[in-house]
Write the structure tokens for this entry.
Amino acid sequence: MTMAKAYRGVGMEGAIATWYTRNTGRDLSRFTKTAQLVAGRARSGSEILEVAPGPGYLAIELAKRNYRVTTLDISRSFVRIARENAAQAGVAVDVRHGDAAAMPFGDATFDVAICMAAFKNFSDPIGALREIHRVLRPGGQASIIDLRKDAASAEINDEVRRMRLSAWNTLLTRWTFKFVLLKRAYTREQLERMASQSPFGRWEIATDGIGVELRLMKA
């Protein structure tokens, strides 16, 4: 059984991408936290692929930690914004445009792959997992970090409060979480089913706050 759905990421262009960039940039702590998580697993100098990086905040944090970072995003607006943000931060990030289910990279190119807050938007999530497996070197690992399907309203409200948004953007972000993002998020069982249909031989799932991580290991 495959899982497919309409891709919503193509809407992340122009003014919407700019709005997203501005609001997510108000609190970079979650990107710092995720970069520290990766640093605890990957050796210095590893080649890291971030799939669907958006404005590039996580990629920049990883590049600051002596990793060689490449990103791939289907949004041309985000490609432009991520390049600008990396240049402004003074770090080297190879920002590419492309589809997660048809990556423009050779086999066994990266040591680590990460996708944060975007996997639920992919129209072909299993295809993306297969591509991630293909571009990873033997022994490589991938982390899919996204919203939990069963995140409670109180948890979401706390998370949005920590974003330090304006009153209007707080209301809009809460609405987006509850009526758009939660509908697209996956259950633990769905993530396990997709992992079992991918070429990855080993995986594990862990939760943290309103998030869930699917961690996959390539033999």
Observations:
- The beta strands are 47-51, 68-73, 93-97, 110-116, 136-147, 202-208, 211-217.
